[in-house]
Amino acid sequence: MIKGIHHAAISTSDLERSLAFYRDLLGFEVVMDGSWPTGVEVADSITGLRGSAARVAMLQGGNAAIELFQFASPKPRPADPRRPVCNHGITHIALEVLDIDAEYERLKAAGVEFHCPPQNLGRSRVTYGRDPDGNVFELLEPVEQ
């Protein structure tokens, strides 16, 4: 039986930059920071890669966890930082907030790019923003009905 989602994982070209975003700007707490060198058979088996080497950090924020990877090997192919959310694959991660307007203004002042200001969808107010690698995150504030 599936109990729920444990975490979402993001591959990044610069782990320190992503930590500055998710930890320092969004407020996630680093609960694990480690790495593995080339030649760790179990890591290659799990990832489906050959000769993998990476640094990995797990971050926790409320009930959400995000795992960040920076692969040293094999050489990653960069993602399109403007990838449209209609393309196949994971389109975004949603982060629940208490005051979407305050979070939007705080993050925008810090240079975070948003698609639009918060929008009212009836049961929630939402907006999409992009992390330093162009991955989309959603800020969501439930609205009392």
Question: How do the helices and strands line up, and which of them pair or pack?
Answer:
Blueprint: E1 8-11, H1 15-25, E2 29-36, H2 41-47, E3 53-61, E4 64-73, E5 93-96, H3 100-109, E6 113-114, E7 119-120, E8 124-130, E9 136-142
Parallel strand pairs: 1-4, 5-9
Antiparallel strand pairs: 2-3, 3-4, 6-8, 7-8, 8-9
Question: What does it look like?
Answer:
The protein is α+β, with helices and mostly antiparallel strands and 145 residues long. It folds into 2 domains: 8-73, 2,3-Dihydroxybiphenyl 1,2-Dioxygenase, domain 1; 93-142, 2,3-Dihydroxybiphenyl 1,2-Dioxygenase, domain 1, CATH 3.10.180. It contains 3 helices and 9 strands; from the N terminus they run E-H-E-H-E-E-E-H-E-E-E-E. Strands 5, 6, 7, 8 and 9 form a 5-stranded mixed beta sheet that branches. It has a 4-stranded mixed beta sheet with strand order 1-4-3-2, covered by helices on one side. The chain is elongated.
Considering the chains and any ligands shown, give keywords for the structure.
single chain; about 140 residues; alpha+beta; 2,3-Dihydroxybiphenyl 1,2-Dioxygenase, domain 1; 2 domains; five-stranded mixed beta sheet; four-stranded mixed beta sheet; 9 strands; about 20% helix; elongated
Structure summarized in a few sentences:
With 145 residues, the protein is an alpha+beta fold. The protein has helices at 15-25, 41-47, 100-109, and strands at 8-11, 29-36, 53-61, 64-73, 93-96, 113-114, 119-120, 124-130, 136-142.
Share of residues in strands: 35-45%
Order of SSEs, N→C?
EHEHEEEHEEEE
CATH homologous superfamily classification of the largest domain: 2,3-Dihydroxybiphenyl 1,2-Dioxygenase, domain 1
Report how far the terminal alpha carbons are from each other: 32 Å
As a whole number of angstroms, the C-alpha radius of gyration is: 17 Å
Shape: elongated
Mean pLDDT: 94
Output the structural class.
alpha+beta
Number of strands: 9
What CATH architecture of the largest domain would you give? Roll
Q: Which spans of ≥5 residues are poorly predicted at pLDDT below 50?
A: none
What top-tier CATH class of the largest domain fits best?
Answer: Alpha Beta
Please report the number of helical segments. Answer: 3
Biggest β-sheet description: 5 strands, mixed
Determine the CATH topology of the largest domain. 2,3-Dihydroxybiphenyl 1,2-Dioxygenase, domain 1
How many structural domains are formed by the residues? Answer: 2
| Residue share in helix | 10-25%
